[in-house]
Amino acid sequence: MDEARLIFDFDRYPYLTAGLPGIGGRIRAQPEDFVVTEVPAYLPSGEGEHLYVFFEKRGLTTRQVFDHLHQRMRIPEKSIGVAGLKDKHAVTRQWISIPARYQDRLPQLEELDGVRLLETGLHKNKLGVGHLRGNRFEIVIRDAIPEALNAAQKVLSELKRLGVPNYYGPQRFGLGGRNPLRGYELVTRGKGRGRPWLKKFLIGSLQSLLFNDWLALRLERGLYDRVVRGDVAKKHATRGEFLVEAPEVENPRAAALEISATGPLHGRKYFEAQDDARALEDEVLAAYDLTREHFRARKGARRPIRFPLEDASVAAIAGGLRLSFFLPKGAYATALLREVMKKNPEGVAPGEEIAENGV
């Protein structure tokens, strides 16, 4: 097995909009250039035993805020709830929950430099990972090409028509993109050493790499916006999944972005593809000398090949462009930015924590 293949490199994956020029440029020149606002799945009901806190942070990871709540404010770690992780090098706004009995300690949260309280409310349940609809982004791209506005508008128009390739971004693969290699060693050589959560994370990174390769294969073969026999397709409106038995019947819906093929995150229990679709998945596994049996210790899942682009706009500002868009939970901003910029966006280092909700 060629180990280099197991090291994540975004440059090896094709662009959906390869026929359109990118605008180049750079992001994150300053924190205000990258603003992320969490869009919750529901708002606090106004009563209950948990206090939901909406706050803004700068220059901090979600984990640093979590640790402040636990260590400085003495709130039990298991009673703190978050819906998703947010990036450090940005201005981010998100929800966190704590037991309502600790409400009198809440002012101490603003003792953490870079945190500002925005809103609170009571709710009956603790906030959980994935309890959000997605994120809204406002990103400034500086030092772009002179024709950047027109070029960006053309790319966004195509992405609105075809959907955004749902690649996992560099943040999923660790420093230097080497986490899939470590995950590969775990699934092929046995349990190994390390904490259970770390092993789960590393094998998850390998699952993500295989998904990206599957997505790239579909793009290269003209199957990005189509379904084949045996695909597990997702309905974007209802999120329901079904097995494609007659692709000629379903492909008009795929072309209209009503449904999309889903790719595997291999594991012991998930909706498995059949026939032609399964053959494509097996082709990706075979390139790594892997089989589905290697992942029986992991929970499986499926992930759409693309996601609809919602509420996207771009405007010229002094020194660059401001790009605004909404992403559903689980999607990566880098997947969209690389289509617009035609590069792995600067300032997004592999291993960094970023707005990525519910993997």
CATH-defined topology of the domain at 163-307: Pseudouridine synthase
Shape call: globular
Portion of residues within helices: 25-40%
Our estimate of the beta-strand percent is 25-35%
Order of helices and strands: EEEHEEEEHEHHEEHEHEEEEH
Main sheet summary:
9 strands, mixed
Cα end-to-end separation? 27 Å
CATH-derived architecture of the domain at 163-307? 2-Layer Sandwich
* Number of strand segments: 15
- Strand pairing plus helix content: what structural class? alpha+beta
Q: Report the radius of gyration as a whole number of Å.
A: 21 Å
* CATH homologous superfamily descriptor of the domain at 163-307: TruD, insertion domain
CATH class designation of the domain at 163-307: Alpha Beta
Task: Determine the mean pLDDT.
Answer: 92
- Count up the helices: 7
Low-confidence stretches: 347-359
Sum this structure up briefly:
The chain is α+β, with helices and mostly antiparallel strands. It is 26% helix and 25% strand. Among the domains are: 42-129, 2-Layer Sandwich (Pseudouridine synthase), CATH 3.30.2350.20; 163-307, TruD, insertion domain (Pseudouridine synthase, 2-Layer Sandwich).
What would your notes on this structure say?
The protein has 359 residues and is of the alpha+beta class. Among the domains are: 42-129, Pseudouridine synthase (2-Layer Sandwich), CATH 3.30.2350.20; 163-307, Pseudouridine synthase. It is built from 7 helices and 15 strands. The strands form 3 sheets. Strands 1, 2, 3, 4, 5, 6, 7, 14 and 15 form a 9-stranded mixed β-sheet that branches. A 4-stranded antiparallel β-sheet has the order 10-9-11-12. It has a two-stranded antiparallel ribbon with strand order 8-13. Helix 3 (179-189) crosses helix 4 (196-220) and helix 4 (196-220) crosses helix 6. Residues 347-359 have low confidence and may be disordered.
